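User: What would this chain look like folded?
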Amino acid sequence: MGDGRDLRTLFGSNDREIHAAEQFTNRQEQWEAVTAALGDHLRTVGAPGFDIEDLETPRDNVLVFHGVGGIGKSTLSRKVEAALAHSEHRPAQWGAPVWGNGHPRVLPVRIDLARSAGTDFERVVLTIRLALAELGRPLPAFDLALRRYWDQIHPGEPLEEYLRRGGLGRRFGRVVPQQMQSALADIAQALLLPGTVGAVVGQVTGALVRALRDHRASVRALAECTRLADFLEAEPDLDSLAYATHLLAWEIARLPRGRAVVPVILLDTFEDVGDRVHRDLERLLQRVVWLMPNAFFVITGRSRLQWADEALHGQLDWAGPAAWPGLAVAEDPAADPDAPHPPGGPPPGSAGRARGARQILVGDFSAEDCDDYLARRLTRDGNPVMGPEVRAVVTARSHGLPLHLDLAVQRFLAIRRTGRDPRPADLDLDFPALIVRTLSDLTPDERHVLRSVSLLDNFDVALASRAAGMTYESAALRMVERPFVRFDPHAVWPYHLHGVIRSTIRTAGDRADDRWSERDWTRAAERAFEAIGERRAAAPVPDRTLLVNCLRQGLRLARDFGLGLGWLADAAWAYVGDSVWEPLAPPAPEGLAPSPLRTAADALVETLSALARRQHEHRERTVARLTAVVDSGLLPAELRDMAVYYRAKAQRDLGRAQDSRDGMRLVADGGGRLAPAARRGLAHLARLAGDFPTALRTADTLGWAGRHHRVLGDVWWVQGDMARAAAAYRAARDEAEEHAVAGERATAQAHRAFTLAFTDPAVAQDELDLAHHLLVGLDLRATRLTTHIAALLRDAGTASAQIEGRAQVLRAEAATAGITAARPAIELALGFHHAVHADEVRLNACLARLRETVRGGDYAYYGDIVCFMAGWPLPDDGPSRAQWLDGPERTRARWRDLVTARRALYGGTP
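Assistant: Here's the prediction, encoded as structure tokens.
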């Protein structure tokens, strides 16, 4: 819904056909929070026991919306005021408030506290009184106090003139002084003072105090205000003006039923009230909120209110959760970031982040809301001026921040003034103005911490202070309370910067007086890099989540700032050791395409990225990426072995056996960390070639590092000895569990399920269930393919399992992944199924596909196995030359027995 004409945009273009309107988008949840809280307040003030004179009961008459600058808080405040004042101004998506029958009229009063608005405390009080002028009657107790204050603090300056000159008197500037004068005259008359004295506030005040002290019947109505006499004897100043709002609340409470109102006072831009050291104005405003419990206050600002913090006793009149239960937060002093914390409690470093029920963070726009905003902001003949491609780029860049959308609109118009239509690339940028808005109310130390943590994806207070090079944490503790710092209790380190704020600080032109030089940024990166490594090293037990978080951030810092590898080398080995393969590669530096490999950090980023992405890319792509790393010569010898070894694995998956052997032999001969794994790779290659004796002998030398049990299982199942193979895989799984290597554990279990699927479908189902459970959270594409092939074997011999169709899907998946080694296993599963059914036509087709797949090289013996299962002689062109461990005939018998057993299970005939 439009929110009036946008004059800045209107005067930004000569094109009179463009309609430029301010836009208000959604914020339905915030409106619902307002109506719900206001409904509670109306019920509270309407309850029989409510007492305006009670100054001890905790207050719940305030609702706070806080958020990063430019998020739309002021727009929300204006729209709430309009919606409460006139239902026709309520956005269509906002539902009508439901407060029940008989409630007083709601009277919204919005006050902008921004420094640019020039609002001081006097203007706040006068604005509230002016709004109540529409009641059409004096408010004697308060009006007398206000008149007494004015005459002493502003002698010789008529209030009416002050209101006119200050812009407050447009509607009620004459009415309020008249009502004040009328109240003064009425009191004088009640006290039987001479009529001419009725305008002399000093004499009226003195007479009224004496009358109140003497309990005269003539002032019975005012005598019900128990604190009035004491107040009138106090010295007029700003403090007394703040206390006078109690009299205003008392007058509102005694309005006749037909004129009863509940003021809703909206205090906007509360961050300009002061800072956390100078709270003079904040103390006066808090006093107003406390002394007017029948009014409801909606406060909007960048930071949460700290009124419920016990530490503010002495700085504010009322502080602590007992006074402001709705504003209370769960505090944790955040001392040691690695210290344990109670189950269910906030993690260390989360001080002040659990918001009170009446403190609401104003969130970012959704992508849909951003697009809607941009589409409606500039229109011609009712159609959006900004095209969908441009809107999509701006939406992505904005991270939902309305100020970014507004700045993008201004740039869009500026480009149009050059005579061309803006392209998406023209809006794919950040705006320096956002830096000014973000830094404007931060202390120098907070700005230093903010720039430091903009280098980090996430952080805690200790890490932020360390990255900033500070030996104290006070600045970081203040900074994490800012609304542009988001809190995620489930993250390794709970804080992160709002996306667009972080991006802008790192990439947009910083023209602040304390802006950093390139050397400043590099020093901060070095500090952050070292601090992250220290935190990983200090972990009491290996923590995979911490490892990945440290690697992601460390890789980015090392790459972007040309740092040495340092602790990254050891972390990289820990990462590959678990075979989990979470994505690691940080995105390219903002606005830059991926660059050629220039440093060791570049090469390590590319290596680890290729290893993780091989679960989602064709193996040819993996080989190409790792070849580039190896050829660059940037990595130290052991890390170069990592690239060579995993390239050899990918080459084996592609069926490039000789290239794989060369790589595995190079790593094995080097004797480094991966030498045992490379020897295992050579054993696998011997098995694929049908040299089972060599594979078996090698397995006996591998030990845990070479995954000896899994190699044994791989050798035994192709012999048809499923019991021995399943036992070997179980031993491999258990050993992996002992060593806490999740990837190896899942892989061994998947192979165990594959093996047992030949022998017992029911047992195989249980083993598959376990395999799927162990794969949760892991990214192992080849292992998942193994479980799918195992499911085919489990269902082999059934009539309604759609084996052929499922096999076709798996062929396509293997081809997409470049895992050609899976293709023979798929055909073997089909051969088993057709052998059970004695389907000679499909068996021959299966053999033909196998021969085409293996072409006489690796896996050639799979054709022999199909013949064994079918009870057929080996083909005329000769066997595969596989060296069966106990001869071909005994191997044939075992495979044939598996088919016979499956056929008997389903009642088939030979």
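The mean pLDDT is 84. If you want, I can go into more detail on any region.
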